[in-house]
């Protein structure tokens, strides 16, 4: 009797795509909030605080999460994962600030391209060295082809947006910041996946992420205030729509923690990126349909093809990790 591998594989890949679908919306909310709240770090702090509150409530309500917190002392003492993995949340803080800084200067599409390219190449390295909880993964020709198609699709989708670089003096800095975000997020997903297995709880690993993120942003905001670079706190009471960025970030992190043991860093990254590009296209169609070109549609189709190629085996069946997700 044939095993239903394709159906089992399609579910986690679809969830990865759904999480990526919301990333452009999170970026738009964070970058827009920065103008109201008084700075990039203030917008990132609101997102992180909202996420932390949601996760504290979840930690109290879910038995599995409470057990995960009880295991914290054992994990700290026995070190099944390095202790510095607790700092993974600082990557999340960096990514939120990168969104706020970059989107206003280079736009959603070019920000996505920079993150996509950096994350894809980094994911290949992660799978080669076995840093993800899925262990070492063979970098076959078909996986390289899938990654190449992904980058090609992303470039096609954002063709012409590079002109933004000449329009803003901060554009080059924003582009470098976005590239750094792509590199770091790929490592963060693997760190979170290993942490989730160690604690036996996705919620615990994610809460620790946002605890570190909030602490890091607090230190940064105090430092910037002392240096008189950016005022401390919020200039206005946050508007209702600003609170949605945090929950979207939770969905992204939880997806990484849960699915990276099944898919590996590269295939997970491709699923997230596909959703990100589809989300960007959908937002363009809703907000400014007259600006949507055929290149965006073609680029999205090429990226969807990349997902299929990178997750397909020569025997005609999708690749499936059998390890349990946590």
Could you characterize the architecture of this molecule?
The protein has 326 residues and is an all-alpha fold. It has one domain. It is built from 11 helices and no strands. Helix 3 packs across helix 6.
The total number of structural domains is 1
- Total helices: the number is 11
**Shape label:** globular
Radius of gyration over alpha carbons? 19 Å
| Mean pLDDT rating | 78
Strand content: under 5%
Oligomeric form: single chain
Largest sheet: none
Layout of helices and strands, plus pairs?
Blueprint (H helix, E strand, L loop, with lengths): L4 H17 L1 H15 L2 H22 L1 H8 L1 H7 L9 H42 L11 H17 L13 H29 L2 H25 L18 H43 L6 H17 L16
For the structure shown, list the relevant keywords.
globular; 11 helices; mainly alpha; disordered N terminus; disordered C terminus; 326 residues
